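Model: You mentioned two targets. I'll fold them one after the other.
Researcher: Yes, keep them separate.
Model: Target one:
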Amino acid sequence: MIRSADLLALAARVEAADGADRALDAEIGAVTLKNGAVRVTDDGRRLQISPPPRRYTASLDAAASLVPEGWNWEVYSDGTALLWMPPAGEWSIRRTAVADAATPALALTAAALRAMAEEAGE
């Protein structure tokens, strides 16, 4: 099971990145298991994931694949992303996840990881 704290820590690292980062992509792929059957090996020098992870930190399409089912999202050109889960009823609380990053893809990736953390709870 994915821990909420691990997802939030990874989201903060994504949000702090200056641009696309294949090492972060690999970590996201390993943590979220979004690559289907994932095999992770550590040969002491690098982390290898098979198949290669999607380019979450570079591509809006790849980042959007991380958004949990049922969540709506918006991304702005200034590097802000907003995700929200519509309320289930009149008195339910609307859940949100927000991120600001150097690029829209980084922002959407970070916000999606925060939404996953919200769903994971603890």
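Model: Target two:
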Amino acid sequence: MHRIPGTVPEWNAIRGTQRKQRVYTDLNCMAKGKSRFSVAKLRSFWQRTSDGLNAEQLWTQFRRETRSSLDLYSAETGRNLREEWSARRGRRRVVAAVAGAMYKRLTPVRRLLLLLAFVLLVFPTFQYSTNSGLRISPNSTFAALILLVLLVLEIGRAHV
């Protein structure tokens, strides 16, 4: 459920002194016509996230890492995936080959988690009640959490 700032559930979650400080900060910001989120804070966040690189440098680094990954998966599949991709033929086969190589590198438990996440993404949940009838809801939140866990596990394994 999306919370709107200042609503009762959010207000009840804040206790005592924090509540007074929050009210003071909010009123102070409103009185001065300021927002708690400033351009300087956004710029600082971008600098920390991008390590100070500009868009061109980030794009160059991304392309270099992509080529390196394609070379790695080319060695695993025994095919020249970079050449196949550049020739613009069979790009679907290149994507399938890379996905297959990535899948094979996972441990059996992680493969099962990945399959579960994909199933949750594809198949919604069906609920029926006499009051509201049939209700269909996506499982994307659970799938995203499983994918996040897999990402954390893979990053941890890469740095060991």
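Researcher: Noted. Anything on target two?
Model: Residues 52-105 form one domain.
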